[in-house]
Amino acid sequence: MSVVGERLQPTIFELSRPGRGGGKIPHPPANALDRIPAAARRAEAPALPELSEPEVVRHYVNLSALNYSVDSGFYPLGSCTMKFNPKLNEWAARLPGFAGLHPMAPDETAQGTLAMLHELEAILAEVSGMDAVTLQPAAGAHGELTGILMIRAYHRSRGDVERTEVLVPDSSHGTNPATASMAGFKTITIPSAPDGGVDLAAFTAALGPKTAAIMITNPSTVGLFEARIGELLEATHAAGALAYMDGANLNAILGRFRPGAAGFDVMHFNTHKTFSTPHGGGGPGSGPVGVRPNLVPFLPSPRVVREDDGSFRLEREGERPSSIGRVRSFFGSTGVLVRAYAYLRAHGAAGLCEVSDDAVLAANYLKARLAPVYEVPFERACMHEFVASAADLKRRTGVRTLDIAKRLIDKGYHPPTIYFPHTVEEGMLIEPTETESIETLDAFADALIEIFHEAETDPELVTAAPHVAPVRRLDEATAARQPNLRWRGMTGAQTPCPD
Amino acid sequence: MPYGPHAADDRSRMLQTIGVDSVDRLFDDIPEALRSGPLKLDPPEPELELSARLQALAARNRTDLVSFLGAGAYRHWTPAVVDQMLLRGEWYTAYTPYQPEVSQGTLQSIYEYQSLLAELTRMDVVSASHYDGGAATAEAALMTCRATGRDRILVGRGVHPHYRQTLETYAEGAGLGVDEVPLVASGPLAGTTDLAALALLLADAEHPVAGVVAAQPNILGLLEDMPQIGRLAHDAGALFVSVIEPVSLAVLAPPGDYGADIAAGEGQSLGIPLQYGGPYLGIVACSDALIRQIPGRLVGLTKDLEGKRAFVMTMRAREQDIRRERAASNICTNQALLALAASIYISTVGPHGLRDVAAMGASRAAELEAALAAAGAPRLHAGAYLNEFAVHVPNARAVFKRLLARGVLAGIPAADLLPDEPAVADALLVCATEVTTHADITTFATALAAELAGGAA
Is the peptide bond before B31 cis (omega within 30 degrees of 0)? Predict the structure, then answer.
């Protein structure tokens, strides 16, 4: 039996029949649009599907059943921190006072939300050792752009306009170099050392008067704490550059390492990783950014300001001319931030520390269970995730990491992240998170070990996987060569409204 | 830890397997000098108390006011089915569909979203989603520069100021120039984009323009001559970006019909709660000619190896995890769950319902216009509008504050949105939608009449 539903669904367009639906919106007077000039009006009604509500419900319920999710099972997707999403947080975000608040509501009508946001900024500053936090960025990559633009503004404010380069380790997330390019910088890629950390010699050789910033993911994308971080930060600052921390892996170090206190100048948080806000099948995320005092003047606007009388307001336009400006419309993804706030309050200081302890414990436990069978390129203690490799298995049997991932689906699991980072051959990045029981971890380890033996005895069983899933492997080449990105062939509603 | 899974002896069993005596040992790599002391935060809060705290915070927001506020985020009625579907964990607790075999639900839903928005906009290609209207507009403007190899963008002052400011921030980083196209100050076309000024800006041969960005309806609610803006842009070899409002497209000409190369906008009005600014839904759509330039994820239809129809993320070579510093954008996580909300909303209200939403807003707005005019606040502009418009009110900010004290959120002082436009200094920008009632309008008009008469009532 498949771990997800097996019944593929027709598209919503194929389900449509003229004359279905209705009963939702009262009808406006027939002449409601007469005052709109004909040239500005739509000539032909859009060909949108017509369905009854029961059909809509079945369509989306049955489609949802084709998804694997944290609520249905173990999701060890490395770098993505697929931890449990608390249900209280969903309830909180839907409270009418939060959900119904207009983004342009006058400050005096938004005191509950503004107070919550102000406290959340303070909590994130404490967790990260930063001095101030902006909650505006909509996702981690958006936070990176915000951070790098602040670094750019910082150098320019000092007349230091020759800094055109950003150093990025070769194991970094693709968003780091892409962000550097968007902010007008040239990316210099730094190789990894054999121990998985940044190659200090190559790093210091690349540092210089042209370096604007370094972007470091710590713990790194291979799940290791960057043990030479003190030297890296010192060399960076000695060269006049600033240090950006990609906070994607913050889940490992809460209460153990505060990046701002340790010397990073700026970092982003992924609330959808560390602070349990649900990932929604690809978003929404939220990517708050914390900064040290040197970057505070450049924070995007508007910030939340606390007045002497204890009330809160948003910064007024132009109030802080040194700001890099707006990075989005309105204040931020407040609905996501409510969830992060609830998570942080539920945990408090002790709980957050325990989150990281248990996440790191789970990863090391799983690594210890797998190390006798799979290659584990870095033997020292990992943080919240680790890389296993099937390079040797592939040489002996032809079975690749991709095949192992697909076979895991047959065994009821979402596969780990595969082929990332690119620095490990046939790598699998496994992140169990702190919310999985020892029984779950054991069962997953058993499944991976079983697949290893299958690869040795019956490789085709593995290379042809998945066998029990709603679809088999997909023709991705044709999809890219002859893209079909939208349904065509529905005609517009020809019949009058059904009700 | 509130959501922890461990029984009393689980941790010690795990440590034993690992071969260390304490979890502290696992953090040995952190240099001692850089280790953190205890966090200065409150102790954990039990769910019972936390839920009461959250309820109290939410209750401090005033969402009970009679509201006429729009300006880029709109109050709409959302059928109950939308949130009921979104609450399924199979949707909201899944990650990006990297493993298509166990993600067909999300993948098909994104394909359907792309298709629905392509139909609504009459554009060829729609991305899987962007952060919000501001970021989508900025990305659309950057697309025009990549596609034309030019580095100058013209943006109309009728585009939402937050979108313009976001575009400025993005353009500054990318080293691109942005010039604003003024609005006509007076006369029958007052409040719309000054086409003569646009033509002049486009005629600067030394600084050729990559793209022209204009909004329909514009920030003052007015309808622009979009076909003409498009023609002027194209005559100068520039691309045309139309900033759209999706509900309005049920009744207004879609960007694909008047020659837009790219459509961008905010999808919040499609069943997404206001929630103080997000998460919302950035829409980016383009013509087939620009498909290699569109940033963000795309889902395509394909087959599996047995010939079954299936959906998959495609044309990934544009994206950051493959192309790194040469990617079309750094965007990774987008707004998939909000795109799903929009799809369920559109599917539930259907084509007739969506038209009724737009037309009902227009109808309520006309009623509002008449009531406010009778109360002493006539419309500021002569041009056509759909459901949002400015009314002339001397001392608009002060009147706005006094109306707030009477329980009426009287739109927004136009000068707060457009501080550099003297023509709207004495105006309120107000909006009506299908949720605006006759009683709301009467309350507003009565309060306004009293204020304008000297605040006696």
Answer: no
Which portions of chain A are predicted below pLDDT 50?
A: none
For residue B456, what pLDDT band results from cuts at 50, 70 and 90?
very low
Cα–Cα distance, A262 to A131 (Å, whole number): 13
A with B: how many residue pairs have Cβ under 8 Å apart? 711
Tokens standing for residue A367: 């690594």
Give the pLDDT confidence score for residue A493 in this predicted structure: 56
CA distances from B60 to A96, A326, B57 (A): 11, 27, 5
CA A311 → CA A103, A307, A337, B279, distances in Å? 18, 5, 20, 25
By C-alpha distance, the chain A residue nearest B298 is: A485
The domain A88-345: what is its CATH number? Answer: 3.40.640.10
Hey, what are B314's tokens?
């495609």
CA–CA separation, A260 and A355 (whole Å): 20
* Bridge partners (DSSP) listed for residue A244: A215, A266
CA distance A495 to A478: 37
The alpha helices in B60-132, defined as continuous H runs, are: 80-86, 89-92, 104-121
Distances (CA, A) of B186 to B18, B190, B328: 77, 4, 41
- B170-192 pLDDT per residue, tens: 999 899 999 999 999 999 999 99
The second-level CATH assignment, the architecture, of B66-76+350-452 is: Alpha-Beta Complex (3.90)
How close B454 gets to chain A, by Cα (Å)?
23
Q: Which CATH superfamily is domain A352-474 in?
A: Aspartate Aminotransferase, domain 1 (3.90.1150.10)
Q: In angstroms, rounded to a whole number, what is the distance separating the alpha carbons of residues A122 and B121?
A: 42
Q: A312, A300, A239: which is closest to A266 by C-alpha?
A: A300
Mapped onto helix, strand or coil, the DSSP state of residue A452 is helix
Asked if A18 and A50 count as a contact pair (C-beta separation under 8 A), the reply is: yes
Paired with A291 in beta bridges are A132, A266
First and final C-alpha spacing in chain A: 43
Cβ partners under 8 Å of residue A12, min gap 6: A49, A51, A59, B112, B116, B343, B347
pLDDT digits (tens, 9 = 90+) for B405-451: 999 999 999 999 999 999 999 999 999 999 999 999 999 999 999 99
Q: Locate A428 and state its tokens.
A: 């699998």
User: What three-state secondary structure class fits A429?
Assistant: strand
A4 contacts in chain B (CB < 8 Å) = 102, 104-105
User: Tell me: the pLDDT tens digits for A447-473?
Assistant: 999 999 999 999 999 999 999 999 999
Q: What was the ipTM of the complex prediction? A: 0.97
Distances (CA, A) of B312 to B91, B108, B110: 17, 8, 10
pLDDT of B457 above 70: no
- Please tell me what DSSP assigns to residue A209: T
Which secondary structure element, helix H or strand E, spans residue A359, and what is its range? helix A334-370
Residue pair B81/B438 in contact by the 8 Å Cβ criterion: no
CATH number of B81-344: 3.40.640.10
Please count the other Cβ atoms lying within 10 Å of the Cβ belonging to residue B364: 23
B101-148 per-position pLDDT tens digit: 999 999 999 999 999 999 999 999 999 999 999 999 999 999 999 999
A386-389 and A427-430: which strand pairing? antiparallel
Q: Are B423 and B388 in contact (CB under 8 A)?
A: no
* Domain locations along chain B: 66-76+350-452, 81-344
Q: Cα A403 to the chain's mean position, in Å?
A: 25
* Annotated domain spans of chain A: 12-64, 88-345, 352-474
Of the candidates B11, B131, B308, which has its C-beta nearest A139's C-beta?
Answer: B131
Side by side, the strands of the sheet bearing B388-392 are: B388-392, B427-431, B412-413
**A-proximal residues of B, 72-91, CB under 8 Å:** 72-73, 75, 77, 79, 81, 83-85, 87-91
pLDDT at B1: 80
